[in-house]
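Quick one, probably user error.
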């Protein structure tokens, strides 16, 4: 298996990455939104937000 960031062989200690650095780069991409899937229709987001504002929160 190769590291998805730099393509070097994966290290079992950091699998599927080769190092802590590559694992941190991947985490930064997740946190920065690089892996986000864009919505097809922004209007859907507005409708969902309106519906959530009309619906009272459910107790836990």
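Nope, works fine. Designed sequence:
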């Amino acid at each position: 298996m190769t590291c998805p960031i730099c393509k070097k062989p994966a290290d079992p200690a950091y699998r599927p990455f080769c190092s802590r650095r590559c694992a941190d780069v991947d985490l930064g991409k997740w946190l920065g939104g690089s892996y986000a899937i864009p919505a097809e229709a922004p209007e859907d987001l507005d409708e969902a937000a309106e519906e959530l504002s009309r619906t009272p929160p459910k107790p836990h």
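The chain has a mean pLDDT of 86.
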